[in-house]
């Protein structure tokens, strides 16, 4: 006997019909109101401002695409309209992962409107993430890392600061937004760990070793006592913003003449993961260090870098060992 799938109805009734006339809340009739209500709910739930900004930007994209297909009210959005927006985003030339990043926000938005009773149906209920093509993750080679580390002028404050910044990214694999928030008081010297506040206000501890400890202590001594505890500071002693860090790292890459890979904080994160796995690290501890909520991403690192393919190929090459085959 076939089992009929049941869809749970919203427990709050806000959309109804009275005397033959539809009575809907403003959230069902106006995107600006619906988005404002949703973002307010995000703040009530104490989501980070980073998350709120992500939803805000994502939903602006959604409204733009819906207007193109002639839909101007949340209540009028159908599953077909929703899929048209996904296709339009994909055809705009962005990566599949970017499409899915937006799609996650869009689905969360409509699920909220439905569960809060503003819509009688959820147009995104049966829409899944698109199948993203798997790409090789770019990372630095050892030679490129050495070039990058030898580029900053260590006789200047800004040069030495940027050098220590590169070391921190390479040693810990933390996100640039996490570096921006990093304070001296987050460093637990005795245990050689750094307290990191990651995405979604989640706290984790990331270890570091003797080399970085030495350079961090030297940098903090040069930095000197200030009115705030932020670790990385500008020449005027104000906390560095992540945009400045990104620009400085990009300039270092140009000066080091690095080719074939983007010189960015995120590439340092990939590079950390690559060498962590190649040096024998395990997926579980890598997941904890990087702050990933699932093991899916780190499994990609393991499959790509779990063995040194070039080294293994040199060892077992059929052509090179042709004379050895009996």
Automatic annotation (TrEMBL):
The keyword DNA-binding applies. Residues 29-114 form the Core-binding (CB) domain. Keywords: DNA integration, DNA recombination, DNA-binding. InterPro entries: CB, DNA_brk_join_enz, Integrase-like_cat_sf, Integrase_catalytic, Integrase_recombinase_N, Integrase_SAM-like_N, Tyrosine_recombinase_XerCD. It comes from the Bacteria. Pfam families: Phage_int_SAM_1, Phage_integrase. Residues 135-314 form the Tyr recombinase domain. Belongs to the 'phage' integrase family. This is Integrase/recombinase XerD. It comes from Paenibacillus sediminis.
């Amino acid at each position: 006997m076939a089992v009929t799938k049941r869809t749970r109805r919203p427990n709050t009734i806000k959309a109804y019909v009275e005397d033959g006339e539809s009575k809907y809340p403003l959230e069902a009739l106006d995107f600006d109101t619906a988005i404002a209500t949703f973002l307010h709910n995000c703040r009530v739930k104490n989501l980070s401002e980073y998350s709120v900004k992500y939803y805000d930007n994502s939903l602006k994209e959604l409204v733009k695409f819906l207007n193109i297909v002639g839909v101007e009210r949340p209540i009028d959005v159908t599953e077909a309209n929703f899929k048209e927006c996904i296709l339009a985003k994909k055809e705009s030339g962005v990566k599949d992962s970017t499409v899915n990043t937006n799609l996650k926000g869009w689905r969360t938005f409509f699920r909220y409107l439905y569960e809060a009773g503003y819509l009688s149906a959820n147009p995104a209920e049966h829409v899944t993430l698109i199948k993203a093509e798997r790409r090789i993750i770019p990372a630095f080679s050892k030679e490129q890392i050495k070039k990058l580390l030898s580029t900053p002028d260590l006789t200047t404050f800004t040069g030495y600061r940027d050098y220590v910044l590169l070391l921190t990214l390479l040693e810990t694999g933390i996100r640039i937004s996490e570096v921006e928030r990093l304070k001296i008081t987050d460093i637990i010297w005795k245990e050689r760990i750094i307290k990191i506040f990651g995405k979604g206000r989640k706290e984790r501890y990331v270890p570091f070793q003797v080399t970085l400890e030495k350079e961090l202590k030297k940098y903090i001594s040069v930095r000197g006592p200030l009115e705030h505890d932020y670790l990385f500071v500008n020449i005027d002693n104000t906390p560095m913003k992540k945009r400045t860090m990104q620009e400085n790292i990009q300039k270092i890459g140009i000066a080091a003449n690095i080719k074939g890979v983007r010189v960015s904080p995120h590439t340092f994160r990939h590079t950390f993961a690559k060498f962590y796995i190649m040096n024998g690290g395990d997926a579980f501890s890598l997941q904890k260090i990087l702050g990933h909520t699932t093991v899916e991403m780190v499994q990609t690192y393991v499959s790509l870098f779990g063995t040194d393919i070039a080294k293994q190929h040199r060892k077992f090459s059929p052509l090179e060992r042709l004379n050895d085959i009996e």
